[in-house]
Amino acid sequence: MPGAASVLIAGGGTAGHLIPGLAVANALTEDGWPAEEIHFVGSKRGMDAQLVPAAGFGLTTLSGRGLTARRVNLTNAAAAVSLAWAALRGIALVRKRRPAAVLSLGGYAALPATVGAVFWRVPLVIAEQNAVASATNRLVGRFARAAAVPAQGTGLQREVVTGNPVRPEVTQAAREASDARERLGWPAEATSVAVFGGSLGSRRINNALWSALPSLQERDGVFVHHVVGRRDWEDRPLAPARRDSSAKVRDWYCAVPFDERLPVALAAADLVICRAGASTVAELSVLGTPAVLVPLPIATDDHQRRNAEALVSIGQARVVPDADLDAERLLAEIDAMSMQADRTVPSTGSGATFGRADSAQRVARLVIQHSAAVPEGVARPTERAP
Question: In the 3-class helix/strand/coil scheme, how is the chain assigned residue by residue?
Answer without folding.
Answer: CCCCCCEEEECCCCHHHHHHHHHHHHHHHHCCCCHHHEEEEEECCCCHHHHHHHCCCEEEEECCCCCCCCCCCHHHHHHHHHHHHHHHHHHHHHHHHCCCEEEECCCHHHHHHHHHHHHCCCCEEEECCCCCCCHHHHHHHHHCCEEEECCCCCCCCCEEECCCCCCHHHHHHHHCHHHHHHHHCCCCCCEEEEEECCCCCCHHHHHHHHHHHHHHCCCCCEEEEEECCCCCHHHCCCCCCCCCCCCCHHHCEEEECCCCCHHHHHHHCCEEEECCCHHHHHHHHHHCCCEEECCCCCCHHHHHHHHHHHHHCCCCEEECCHHHCCHHHHHHHHHHHCCCCCCCCCCCCHHHHHCCCCHHHHHHHHHHHHCCCCCCCCCCCCCCCC
